[in-house]
Each structure stands twice: as C-alpha cells, then as structure tokens.
C-alpha cells in the first residue's frame, strides 16, 4: 500500500450504513495508480467490497456529489459507496 | 447545524437536527422569519411531517429508528433538492428539518414546509421535495427491535 | 362553534372560527388529542394553511376579506366533506378550521390537516378536501378595497 | 300573500351574499300552493329574483342540503339560493 496514508497520493474511500458494517471499516485512504484512469467501479473491485461487479443499487458520490460508476477518479478525491437510500 | 440561503426567488432553509425535531416550534420560527421578510405571510402554506412508526413492516414493536447520514454531503444535497423544487414551482420559501441519530416511535423524522402565492405550487413543491429527499438524499434507516438493528433499504410506497 | 365526530375509521373535527384562526395552536391541540387517542402520533401528517392575500386580483391593496357562511349548513356540510375524504383515503384523522367574518391580510382563513399511516393518503386527502371545501362548502368571499366591498365568485386556479 | 307568515303554510326562503344584497332581503316566508308541486326553479321565478330562468351558476339547498332546481318542495321546507361558492 506504500503511500496510502498520504492523501495527495491517493483517494479517500468512505462507506455508509450496511456497506460499512459488512466491510468493517468506514473510511480508508487508497492508492491510485499514477498512469491509469481509475473509476469507482474499478475501486469497488480493488477494495473487495463484494463478489463480482458492483450491484446497480449502490450509489456513488465523488467529492460529495452523486457520480456515475465510470467517472474518472483523481488523486485527492473522496469516493463514497452508499447502499440504497431511505430518508424522510 | 442550521443553514439559510438567500435566493432572488425563494428563501431556502435546511436544518439537520441531532437532538430533537419539534415541527410546530420550527414552523413558528420559520413563519416569524417569513413575516419579517415578506411583510404578510404568503397565501398558501403546505406542510408535511413524517414520524417514526410504532411497529416495523412485520408488525414487531419498534424500539428506535436510527438515521445515519453523510456529514457534509447530506445537508448540501438537501439544499440543492430544495432549491431545485422551489425554482421549478416558483414558490416563496422552503424549509426542511430532518432528524439524524436515534429517534423514538411517534417522534418527528422530517418536516417539509413550503410557502407560495397559490395552493397548487405549494402542494406540488412540498410533495415533490418529500419524494426527492426520500429517494435521493443520503440517509439510511436502521430499525431497532428487541435489541437487534436492521438496515432498511428503500421507502414505503407513496 | 366546535365539533368532533367519532368514527370507527377516522376522527373528524370541524371548527368555524369567528374571531381568529391560529393554525399552530390549533394543530398543537389536535396533535395532543391524537396522541391521547392513538398512543403515538400517526406516521404521516399533511397540512395546508390558506391566508388572506395583501392585494386583490387587480393588484389593489386589500383592507379586509369578508367570509359569509350559511349558519347550520356550512359546518354540517364541511363535516360531510371531511368524512367522505377521510373514508375514501382511509386516513386516521382530519381537522378543518375555517374563519368566517372579517379577516385581515396575512391572517389564516383555512387550516386543513390530515393524519394517516402513509404519506400518500395524507397528501391526497388533504389536497382533495381543500378543493372540495373551496368549491362545495357554502362560503362567500367579499373583498374590501378603499371602503368598497366586492363579492368574489369562484376561486383562484389550482 | 295571505298566510305567508305562517311557517306551516309556506316555505322559508334564504338568500346569501350578492343575491341577498341584490334582492334587499335575506329571509322570507313564502306561500306554497296547496295543489301543485312547486320547485326551486318555480320559486326563483315567483320571487322575481332575476330576469328569465335561474342561472345555472346558482346553487340551491333544501333543508340545508344541496338540491336540484327541479326538486319538489313541501310546506315547511327551508330553500336557499346561493351565488357561486368561494371558500378556503
């Protein structure tokens, strides 16, 4: 994981609700490869958050705005994976 | 956690309540601000209050409902939803109070109130914003029954 | 002039107010009764408050709105409309307060509140009952501008 | 008008809002013929409340319930003529 504690070199990953409890952690710094354009879908697989591809029910936020699973990620981004919403 | 955004078209206020949400007191304060801002209160006001049920979907007695949110994102996103609804219905003011944390049966989870010049826009905006926040604002509910917590995915049908 | 009808399905209350209508105080009392009746308050509550505009349809400053009613018939007919809406949407409780007499700009004319187990029935019942009472309950509005009273026929569009 | 002051022999007629002000009265006892079945539409004409037939915008109540213009009237009935409603 090398520089994974250095924010400028990686991503901040946040999990919420059932996803957080299944994974056993809520926030993690994760390295981003220098020469590739990583996406939330790639990140989901790398983190081992579930078997197979990311379920379509999972919502993604990048820098606290909803984003698509194929949005390119950049160093310093905050990426959140969220189970289905139940507010109000 | 309180916030107000002055807009040329509408006055938007979103509050996340960590301790308690008392809808009538929140409405009284909001109306006082509105009266100061507009002189007389607008002609139409539509309000919705959602409260914790006494039982879960299987009829078991509920001890508490727990509301998790995304600090930073939830309030900002609620404000965006409120601004968007207020603009599309051309209303005067929108206020949203939403509880987070542990909430007892019968206690209020959410208050949405809309003031407008006509009843139709007030009612439509209130209804649309409630659906938007139920399905698109980052909140997650966990029901506590008999000491066991269960995450709830999705909402009851309209 | 207050009245309450206990129904197996829904608790209906209709009040004609001759002096003043204070919506938040009316709602507080209604919620207290509801809490006594149901233990915990129902999960969904939808409210509408209508207030006197500051100007008439031609933009002239309004001094007062005058509301005439049919003593005897108006309250009984409002109760029938409320019972009918409550039954068709299977809600828990409906309260209507309606002013009669002279009302100043900004003051409340009407309060409709509906408590139900789900938000859809609460919202639909509140909206339907408001339209019903606007078009079918015996009330007549007269606008007073510059000392001249003008009877208003019909309502603003939804 | 003969027995028009005797409730048992006639109808109570009530007018509201603009109708009341145009007519200059709000409540009147009106005789009902013994042998005919009178209706609110007949009554409207007899009372001289307007020129020609009753406008369709006028609402009628008999004994404080909405009624049709051709509903048969009986002695002792309370008949109300109402201009278009504007509540709420």
Provide the succession of SSEs of chain A. Answer: EHEHEEE
**What is the number of independent domains of chain A?**
1
Structural class of chain B: alpha+beta
Shape of chain A: globular
Describe this structure in words.
The complex is a heterotetramer, with two copies of chain A (88 residues) and two copies of chain B (158 residues). Helix content of chain A is 17%, strand content 26%. Chain A is built from two helices and five strands. Residues 1-7 of chain A have low confidence and may be disordered. Chain B is α+β, with helices and mostly antiparallel strands. Chain B has one domain: Molybdopterin biosynthesis MoaE subunit (Aldehyde Oxidoreductase, domain 3). A five-stranded mixed β-sheet of chain B has the order 1-2-5-7-3, with helices on both faces. In chain B, strands 6-4-8-9 form a four-stranded antiparallel β-sheet, with no helix packed on it. The mean pLDDT of chain B is 93. Classes of the chains: A alpha+beta (88), B alpha+beta (158). Chains in contact: A-B, B-C, C-D.
Attribute tags:
heterotetramer, A: 88 residues, alpha+beta, Ubiquitin-like (UB roll), five-stranded mixed β-sheet, 2 helices, 5 strands, B: 158 residues, Aldehyde Oxidoreductase, domain 3, four-stranded antiparallel β-sheet, elongated
Q: Would you spell out the secondary-structure blueprint of this structure?
A:
The complex is a heterotetramer, with two copies of chain A (88 residues) and two copies of chain B (158 residues).
Chain A: E1 10-15, H1 17-23, E2 27-31, H2 40-47, E3 59-62, E4 65-67, E5 78-82
Parallel strand pairs in A: 1-5
Antiparallel strand pairs in A: 1-2, 3-4, 3-5
Chain B: E1 2-6, E2 11-17, H1 23-38, E3 44-51, E4 64-69, H2 73-89, E5 93-99, E6 101-103, E7 108-116, H3 119-136, E8 139-145, E9 148-152
Parallel strand pairs in B: 2-5
Antiparallel strand pairs in B: 1-2, 3-7, 4-6, 4-8, 5-7, 8-9
Helix pairs in contact in B: 2-3
């Amino acid at each position: 994981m090398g520089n994974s504690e250095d924010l400028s070199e990686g991503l901040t990953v946040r999990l919420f609700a059932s996803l957080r409890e299944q994974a056993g952690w809520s926030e993690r710094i994760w390295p981003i490869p220098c020469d590739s354009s990583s996406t939330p879908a790639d990140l989901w697989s790398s983190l081992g958050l579930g078997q197979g591809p990311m379920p379509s029910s999972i919502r993604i936020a990048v820098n606290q705005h909803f984003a698509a699973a194929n949005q390119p990620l950049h160093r310093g981004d905050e990426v959140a994976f969220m189970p289905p919403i139940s507010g109000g | 956690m309180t916030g107000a955004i002055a807009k040329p078209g509408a006055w938007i206020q979103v509050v996340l309540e960590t301790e308690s949400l008392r809808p009538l007191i929140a409405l009284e304060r909001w109306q006082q601000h509105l009266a100061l801002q507009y002189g007389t209160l607008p002609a139409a006001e539509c309000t919705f209050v959602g409260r914790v049920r006494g039982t879960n979907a299987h009829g078991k007695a509920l001890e508490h409902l727990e509301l998790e949110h995304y600090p930073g994102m939830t309030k900002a996103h609620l404000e965006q939803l409120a601004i968007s609804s207020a603009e599309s219905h051309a209303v005067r003011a929108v206020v949203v109070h939403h509880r987070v944390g542990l909430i007892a049966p019968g206690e209020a989870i959410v208050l949405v109130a809309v003031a407008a010049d006509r009843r139709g826009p007030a009612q439509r905006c209130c209804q649309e914003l409630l659906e938007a926040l139920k399905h698109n604002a980052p909140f997650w509910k966990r029901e506590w029954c008999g000491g066991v917590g269960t995450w709830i995915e999705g909402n009851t049908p309209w």
